[in-house]
Amino acid sequence: MRMEKERQLVVEYGKKLITSGLTSGTGGNISIYNDEEKLIAISPSGIDYFDTTPEDIVLLDLEGEIVEGENKPSSEVALHRIFYNRRDDIKAVVHAHSMYSTVLATLGWELPASNYYIGLVGGKNVRSGEYKSYGTEELAEETFKAMENRYAAFMGNHGLIAGSGTIQNAFNIADETERMAEIYYKAKLLGEPKILPDDEVDLMLEKFKTYGQVKVK
Known about the structure:
alpha+beta
């Protein structure tokens, strides 16, 4: 099977979207880009994550044309393609409808450096993009802008996106961003969260270049 490893990983991490609470139903989507093949393995549209098999995963070229697969690819093809076409440091993308990230995205709020794990996202905050209709080039462009020089962003009134060089790290960034969003939300209920100073965030950004990375087996 072509790109068997990537297909299996998309299936595996699709299930983790559900078991980790990052999404529900068939919401969200996952993709992995293979540099040698110049192809994207992406989750199919509308299939339960626990019913999805490697054969169900769709292979696309960088223009979004189906190369292999019988299923309709995720409706957010443009959202994934834009990162593989424009950023060399991103080879996997996780899009989730996680609760607390979506709450902040619905408010149009950024996530500031209220937790030292902000170093994992590659910047001093997680930005929130403006709302655009799902599945559109406009949404892809807005999200790409929100995630400039970052590895995570909120999608206005929609959800969360994270990317990295591996699916393991992209998923870890999504999971930790959601955890930080939950902490920030709950802290706001009680008072005003303390924000880390810039010099400490700079230190965390340096430390997390290695500390926050998931080792690929």
